[in-house]
Amino acid sequence: MSAAPVLHADEPAPWYDDVHTRTQLFIGASAAGVAAYGATKWWDNGFRDFRSHGEGWFGSGTEKGGADKLGHAFGTYTGVRAGAQALQWMGNSREDALRLATTTTLIVYTGIEVLDGFSKQYKFSHEDLIANFVGAGLGWITHRYPRLDALIDFRLYYRESSQAKANGNWAPFDDYNGQRYLLAFKASGVPALDAHPVLRYAELVVGYGVHGYDPPAAAKSRHLYGGLAINVARLLDDTAFRHSKESPVRAGTGLFLELFQIPGTVAFVDRKL
Questions:
Q1: Would the pTM of this model clear 0.85, i.e. be above it?
Q2: Of 64, 173, 203, 260, whose CB neighbour count within 10 A is largest?
Q3: CA distances (Å), 129 to each of 11, 20, 181, 268, in order?
Q4: Is 236 exposed, middle or buried (0-12, 13-18, 19+ CB in 10 A)?
């Protein structure tokens, strides 16, 4: 095995040892990735003069029944939470990582909305912009205050809809009929319940979803959900990860389970609006 290279005092450190450089590369690559995706997915028809319109929120007569607004909020929430964790792994402090992730997420999503206003296919929506800020704000406050983060999660639950299955298009972020957006209230975030050997793994979830809006169908419906779920992240912490609390695998798995509800780990009751 060869010895590690020795740096002299006047030699610069490798780029991968510089937190500032790693941070810039990460933010630049993230923005470039979104731009490349948008160029092929959203703006491939080109651009024209700026246009805007009001889309409404969660009314039955809106184009997506409000599921798209929750999609915007979840996107920025995820950007802040995942971005902050990634930037901390790169060596940034918790405060700097949160500030950079929140700022970058809002700049990127605001840029997307502005470009939508110039695109031939879409228009600028102030409702989308507000939803972006709400999601980023929720991401900021839950990362900023660990006790709140221990109590609530904002998650996407997805089961492929019959429409998407018929089209052979597994698309969890575009298939609104298969999405449910959930707020999970975790018993493990309440000290008295966390001390209980069984109740610590319980969660109360409430959520919202739509059917028949995308693609448009004759029968459209909006749904409120309530139910009980298993706190899979806490269960893994107490079993598979009980000896590796600080491992990257444990942290990555925990973040994934904060953001996505695994089918089969929750039981719903459904109220049609």
A1: yes
A2: 203
A3: 47, 30, 18, 30
A4: middle
